[in-house]
Amino acid sequence: MVAKRGTAMLGWTIERLKWALVRRCLPDPVKARHSEYSMLHSEDDALSRPSEYLLEVSHKAIEAALQTDLGDLAGRLKGRFPYPDDIANLWPGEHYRLLAGLVQVLSPKLVIEIGTAEGLSSLSMQKYLPDNGQIVSFDIVPWRQYPRSCLVEDDFRRGNLKQIVADLGQSDVFDNHREFLADAGLIFIDAAKDGVLEQNLIRFFETVPFRSRPIFLFDDTRLWNMLSIWRDLRWPKLDLTSFGHWAGTGLCERGLHVPGAVTTS
User: DSSP assignment of 52-104, as one string?
Assistant: First the structure.
């Protein structure tokens, strides 16, 4: 255990030094509250293209997001964050209204969220769930213990929001939930962004015999650690950053070549 902690600390230190050097050599030409380094890539040699279905869903979700109002969530932040309390209603720029739009368009009976965090994404989607819909949010940290959580007990008493404390990046844990995950209509992946968890999740989800045609949404696809994950993904995909999160929003569906994939149009 001590050796593992020492290795983790060394890796964290090296990472900090690396980015300190990058920032010194390539200073940010723009002043902003938050900035991240990324890279642009050509599209003509990309490994996959968006399907017609993705384009249709995106179009409808953008239209729905345009009419969506999440201003009521501002009261959950209470000035505890380095950004404005009405951040959930900032669109384009943040993904919360896009998430709400996707829920309105897809009317999923089951939404899977990987990465509960403060809970704003869950709340954004919960507001527009169909009567028989449910959000199940996975995280390795119980929501009550998460710093500055925006969730309250009443959010869970409604019965359409549930948190499972588990690491779906572990194969045995994923296998325990495989049958349940097969009912998902929307899967939002907003977790570690370490280049490892997301790759594991992609591999695991390729083996799930879905009972519908789920849409996946990846957060922070423009962050450095996520560039190769998104670029190398061979599923039909669409970069929706301009209508989602400034740090990157990627919409995709599982490719039809994988086992158990739905082949309906």
Answer: HHHHHHHHHHHHHHHT---GGGHHHHTT-SSS-GGGGG-TTBSSHHHHHHHHH
